[in-house]
Amino acid sequence: MSVAEILSELRRYTALDNESRLQAYLTLCERPSIAFNELARRVHVQKGLLAYHLGVLKAAGLVEVKYQRASKKTSEYYPTKEGKKLLRKLCPKATKN
What is the mean pLDDT of residues 43-57? Predict the structure, then answer.
């Protein structure tokens, strides 16, 4: 494993080192494509704070966003392939796919 790969992996772990961010990520894994407002309700954080946490998760490569600006539906968030892989490492018994 190269230094760049190790640093990338460490960034992913660091992104989950916050209770609200981890809860948001776990919720996204349970309910992919969840809308932003619904995610804020489930995680019990203000929308501005959730936006910050999702930005951190996105920057770490754990979350991707599908923007929905043309309709009334809000943007949807999904765990990335790398994010799912990391979750399987952290919680091997709790993950199915």
Answer: 94
The residue whose two tokens read 């966003």 is: 65
| Helices within 31-80 (DSSP H only) | 36-43, 47-59
Structure tokens belonging to residue 33: 């494509």
Count the neighbouring beta carbons within 10 Å of the beta carbon of residue 83.
22
- Assess contact for 28 and 39: CB atoms under 8 A: yes
pTM for the structure as a whole? 0.83
CATH class given for the domain over 3-88: mainly alpha
Integer Cα distance of 56 and 12 in angstroms = 9
CB 50 within 8 A of CB 87: no
Q: What residues does each domain of the chain span?
A: 3-88
Q: How far apart are CA 34 and CA 41, in angstroms?
A: 11
